[in-house]
Amino acid sequence: MGSAAGARHLGRATERAARQAVSRVQPWADRVARVGYVARGLVFMLVGGLAAEAAAGLGGKATDPSGALVALAHMPAGRAALAFLALGLVAHAAFRAALVLVGEPYVNRGPVRQVMSRVSNGFAAIVYAGTALSAGALAVGWGSRAHTDNDAETRHLSARVLTAPFGRPLLIGIALGILVAAVVQLVQAFVPNNDRERLRVEEMTERECKTVAAVGRIAFAARATVLAACGYFVARAAINSAPHEARGPAGALHAVWELPQGNLWLAAVAAGLIAFGTYGLLEAKWRRLF
Q1: Which CA distances in Å does 100 have to 32, 126, 155?
Q2: Which CA distances in Å does 219 have to 112, 153, 162, 209?
Q3: What is the Cα–Cα distance from 246 to 229, expressed in whole angstroms?
Q4: CA contacts within 13 A on the Cβ side of 183
Q5: CA 105, CA 173: separation in Å to the nearest integer?
Q6: Residue 244 near residue 168, CB atoms below 8 Å
Q7: Residue 67 vs residues 50, 125, 281: alpha-carbon distances, Å
Q8: Cα angle value 70/73/76 (rounded, 5°)
């Protein structure tokens, strides 16, 4: 009991110290965090734009953020754009890491949901730090150091998990975790929630609030679709002991494209990904940060 109480006391002391550190560096920390949301939004708008071009037969590519960054590197002024995105994504990763320490005090949640929020922000910090590294490597011409085939990486990781003790149930558990994340995104899209608590609604008109909510529904539905497809293929890889069946986000988009009337389905998901990028830009303006 004493050790548990000591751990709770240490956790509260760490959170207070983190909050004090954040308060000392505002308001510039606030601006940096908003730049991070802009960078994240632009990346997903690029992913959605490439998928929309592919669906329309205009030569785009159904890919994930890493693949979209590679495509950007070949565009005019692509390296300069990549440098901005790298810095912005570092800022976003740092903001999400800060939320692991300080929590989200403006959202009214119970202890369990607060813990889940911290875990989610920690995972996001790792993902966006990796994406920032890829963008930075491409910006300075180290293309070979950027992870450009995340489907191959997903298959490789699935194969390693399957060869571990209890590998099949572990991979099934990972698939279930991805599917649960998809359900959470779907709930955020269609069930009333506390997302308004994250926004500076006191500075927004009711029309602006409704616009952000509508864009968010489309955005979260699109993310749920991609996550559900990823979870499905990872589950197939586990059940069949066939790691080559696992797919990442790029493979999930290709799976949507392979459906009957796949161009229409891919166009719908692309519109949702563009909406998710737009939602990031709206968050850059309206989100309550610390």
Answers
A1: 17, 12, 30
A2: 25, 26, 33, 15
A3: 10
A4: 7
A5: 31
A6: no
A7: 10, 19, 21
A8: 145
C-alpha torsion sign, points 283, 281, 221, 97: negative
Other Cβ atoms closer than 10 A to 115: 12
Q: Residue for token digits 């692309």?
A: 270
Inter-residue contact 100 to 114 (CB < 8 Å) = no
Tokens in use for 85? Answer: 């995105």
pLDDT score, position 12: 60
Q: What residue has token string 């995104």? A: 185
Cβ atoms of residues 117 and 109 within 8 Å: yes
Amino acid at 28: W
Mean pLDDT by groups of 10 residues along the chain of 290 residues: 54 58 64 93 96 90 89 91 96 91 70 81 92 92 61 86 90 94 89 75 89 92 92 93 90 90 93 95 87
**95: Cβ contacts below 8 Å, ≥ 6 apart:** 32, 33, 36, 289
What pLDDT, on the 0 to 100 scale, is given for residue 269?
A: 94
Question: What is the b/e burial string over 190-229, where b = at least 16 CB atoms within 10 angstroms of the residue's CB?
Answer: eeeeeeeebbeeeebeeeeeeebeebbbbbbbbbbbbbbb
% helix, strand, coil for the chain, step of 5:
80, 0, 20
One-letter amino acid at 223 equals R
Q: Report in angstroms the alpha-carbon separations of 168 from 157, 231, 245, 246, 257.
A: 13, 14, 14, 13, 28
- Retrieve residue 9's tokens: 């006391």
Tokens of 162: 């399957």
| CA distances for 114 relative to 30, 88, 90, 106, angstroms | 22, 26, 24, 11
**Residues facing residue 214 across a β-bridge:** none
Give the type of residue at 25: V
pLDDT of residue 142: 78
